[in-house]
Design brief:
The protein is an alpha/beta fold and 263 residues long. The chain has a single domain, classed as Survival protein SurE-like phosphatase/nucleotidase (Stationary-phase Survival Protein Sure Homolog, Chain: A). 27% of the residues lie in helices and 29% in strands. It is built from 7 helices and 13 strands. The strands form 3 sheets. The protein has a 9-stranded mixed β-sheet with strand order 3-4-2-1-5-6-7-13-8, with helices on both faces. Strands 9-12 form a two-stranded antiparallel sheet. α4 links the parallel β6 and β7. α1 crosses α4 and α2 runs parallel beside α3. The longest helix has 16 residues.
């Protein structure tokens, strides 16, 4: 039986990376695209609870099965499973994202969250992002889509354990030649968090988030370091966020022991 593959993203249904991914994975089985009807970058793992969601079947260049929704990337996965496909897909692929999802970026990323939702429902899942490390004027999705095909084929043959997924970042170096592939851990990348305060023509104050260059720490073996050196980064991510080492420390902490006794 052919594999059932669900594609989604957070850049919206008209994103070039999504078209490239759809074309690359078509040889693996039935590919169904369910994506937001507009850009949803940095939407994280949000789902829509307090307003209705809509689904529209759309025709796109290159053919295939395409649906747009008014929801977030995570909404798209849930709507696909429960309303469009009516079953769990074999593989959920989210991307190709325009820009990195490295280190602590993962907590903001709608791209990564959609893959996480795929893992939650019990499917094989991966998020893939293209990092324009060479500052090219045009984005070349060929590198990332070809690599996505290789990894997707592997996951269908050799599934990951339950409740995990892969976060993949593919660099686009100045010469567009990859240095190799590295299995990595999640690195450190943070934004200074500048907030700009502005005033609109009516005299009302509003605020604008972002704009600062992220601060990266090039830790050995991290996704941040790998991409900076021209390597594809593959980071296995699991749903359990518990810090088990700290959990054991807290169990032997006098302060926490007293806290527990007094509850």
């Amino acid at each position: 039986m052919d594999a059932l593959i669900l594609l989604t993203n957070d850049d919206g249904i008209h994103a070039e990376g999504l078209f490239a991914l759809n074309a690359a994975l078509a040889s693996l089985g039935r590919v169904v695209v369910v994506a937001p009807d507009r850009p949803r970058s940095a939407s994280g793992h949000s789902i829509t609870l307090h307003k209705p969601l809509r689904i529209a079947k759309v025709k796109m260049p290159g053919g295939g099965e395409w649906y747009s929704t008014t929801g977030t990337p995570s909404d798209c996965v849930l709507l696909a499973v429960h309303e469009i496909l009516r079953r769990r897909p074999d593989l959920v692929v989210s991307g190709i994202n325009d820009g990195p999802n490295l280190g602590w970026d993962l907590t903001y990323s709608g791209t990564v969250a959609a893959a996480m939702e795929g893992a939650i429902i019990g499917a094989q899942a991966m998020a893939i992002s293209l990092v324009n490390t060479g500052n090219h004027p045009e984005w070349d999705y060929g590198l990332a889509s070809e690599f996505a095909l290789r990894v997707a084929s592997l996951l269908l043959r050799e599934p990951l354990p339950p409740h995990v997924f892969l976060n993949i970042n593919v660099p686009m170096p100045p010469d567009k030649r990859l240095r190799g592939v590295m299995l990595t851990h999640q690195g450190i990348r943070r934004y200074p968090g500048r907030i700009e305060k502005r005033v609109d023509p009516a005299g009302r104050v509003y605020y604008w988030l972002g704009g600062d260059v992220p601060e990266d720490r090039l830790e050995p073996g991290s996704d941040v370091e790998a991409v900076s050196k021209g390597y594809v980064s593959i980071t296995p991510i699991h749903l359990d966020l518990t810090n088990y080492a700290l959990l054991e420390q807290l169990k032997s902490s006098p302060g926490f022991a007293k806290l527990l006794e007094n509850c």
